[in-house]
Each structure stands twice: as C-alpha cells, then as structure tokens.
Amino acid sequence: MPYKKMMFIVATVPLIFSLAFVAIPEFFVLQWYPILDKDMLTEAERLALNIGITHRYDMAGILFMVVCFAFQSRNVEGVDNQKAILLGAAIAFSAMCAVIISIALFRDIPLDIPPMIATGTLAALSFWSCSKLN
Asked: How much is the pTM?
C-alpha cells in the first residue's frame, strides 16, 4: 500500500473513534459498566459515571492529536523517513491493541471488540506497508 494512502488510513480510524467519543461518551462508558436504571444512581455511581465520561473526552482529545500527527506526516519524503514513521505507527497500534486485550484479561472488564480490531488491523497494515517500501 502506498505510504500516503496508509497514513491517511492511520489518521482516519482514530478520527472516527475520537468523534464517537465526543458525540456519545455515555454510551461507551455504560458498555463497560452497565447500570440497570440510570435514574436511580447513588451519588458515588453518578460521580463514577461522570469521571468515565470525562475520561472519554480526554481520550477523544488525545486521539485527535494522533490524527493531526499522522495526517501531517503523509507528506514526508524519503523512504527511510517513511519507514521510521510507519514502524512507529505499527508499534503504537500494537501496544494499544495489547492494552485493550490486557484490560479485558486482567481487570475483568468486557473486551472492547471494535477498538481491538481497529488497532490490530492498523498495526498489521503498518507493518506490511513498512516492509513493502523500497
């Protein structure tokens, strides 16, 4: 896959998650911590829900930073520089995929399937694109 196209994909996927986290943060928090009746929350549960929503907004901001860096790096010239950037992207997405899986294994939280698939796929595509540059 050409470098410029790969970096566009690397920038687009986090953008989708960032926009989703900003648009419907409560949905993502309640997926991890389902509450039967949101109207009957204790004060501690309400605080925990607000903290979870705030963390989703924080994650959206961090993802947007990644989007900006990835999108601007599309114009990097020189195969060695492109390989270094793709390798960095591959390592970053591999690490994030490992964190998503380990959270599910060690923290007794349901596995987040869409982010796991997205980060794993982007890691594989980045490694593959890096190996194909010449």
From this structure: 0.76
